[in-house]
Amino acid sequence: MKSIVLLLLVLCWIAVVYSATVVLTGVNEAGAEFGSVGGGPVNQNYVYPDLSTSAHLHSLGMNIFRLPFLWERLQTSLNGPLNSSELSYLTNTVNNYTGSGSYVLIDPHNYAGYGGNKIGTGSVTIQSFAYFWQLLSQSFQNNQRVIFGLMNEPTGVTSELWLQAANAAIASIRQTGARNLIFVPGNGYTGAHWWTTGGYGTPNSQVMTNISDPLNYFAFEVHQYFDGDYSGTSDSCQSATIGTQVMTAFTAWCRANNYKAFVGEFAGGNNAVCQQCVTNFLSYLQSNNDVYLGWTYWAAGPWWGNYMFSVEPTQSNGQWTDKPQTSWLQPFLAGANSVLPDNNKSNNSSTTTTTGGSATTLTSWP
Question: Fewer CB within 10 Å: N-end or C-end of the chain?
Fold first, then answer.
């Protein structure tokens, strides 16, 4: 009898842990940011995702795909119009994802630069960046499953300048009438591990409280790797608990300021320490779902080959084979039917997350 009672208690504990999930869970679909601008055409110099593999990942329960691309490809002339061919590639991919019920996080993968110059230097003005987002938001403002990621991993600029650029882009987006959710990165590669301490200038925690969105419909996007220097260039992880340790201060800052957050990149090599590290990390995000909207793992994409972090599946004779890390992610996937709140609820003062079956709904904001 005692063993039966103990088993029931364990099952109840598991049910509680896995019912308190985050809303958005998925993967980066890398490829459109590959290659050099002008280095060759699509499918030779760079590539958009294989939609069949994305559909397989969606069937596993992934409901958001982060889609990196290069600013210079989409806007070949600074302050000029968007390139129609490149926009069509991006739009077709986005529409395929959102048409199947997924969210898409569009991501200019430029590290706060354009053509080798950083925002705020030379001809790459803050106004140029804001105008780019004006054009891009006009292209997707009628699709509320498109999330606007302002920039991948700003670096090489001051935190104060990045704040000005982010606020200018947000203002430009909202002036078009776009009500899409916006993800705002911080300076210093938007690393969560040093969000409150610096090492790249004024800490994000001191600067980014001045982000201004008329709709208050934004979240901070952070990236976090677990190797020795947090760069994601090694397949090792410092320890099984490093992921939870480095998130603590950032989580506390978000909670104290009533902010939402999203982890746009994280990964681990195929080894036992990283497996436990990633599992603990995702459990941490799940248990702090009053702060975290979700995550996208780095990365899938058709050109990775034997890349140490790849979760790009392969298909043979109609059968899919997943990478080892995919099995680490699966217990934490929110499900294809999970949804964000209506952005008209952006002034709500509390958050409620409800879970039913395989779907999770965030019912209020922030």
Answer: N
Q: How many CB atoms lie within 10 A of CB 17?
A: 13
The rounded distance, in Å, linking the Cα atoms of 269 and 324 is 10
Mean pLDDT of 275-296: 98
Instruction: Please give the positions annotated as active site.
Output: 153, 265
Assigned token pair, 145: 């499953």
Q: Is the pTM of this model over 0.70?
A: yes
- Separation between Cα atoms, residue 269 and residue 136, nearest integer Å: 35
The pLDDT of residue 15 is: 35
**What's at 182, amino acid-wise?**
I
Position 23, amino acid: V
242-260: pLDDT as tens digits: 999 999 999 999 999 999 9
Residue 140, SS3 per DSSP? helix
Element (H, E) at 105: strand 103-108
Question: What is the C-alpha radius of gyration for the chain, rounded to an integer number of angstroms?
Answer: 20
Nearest residue to 23 (alpha-carbon basis) of 276, 266, 260, 345: 260
Q: Would you call 104 helix, strand, or coil by DSSP?
A: strand
- What's the rounded mean pLDDT across residues 255-272? 98
Cα dihedral sign, 46-268-203-180: positive
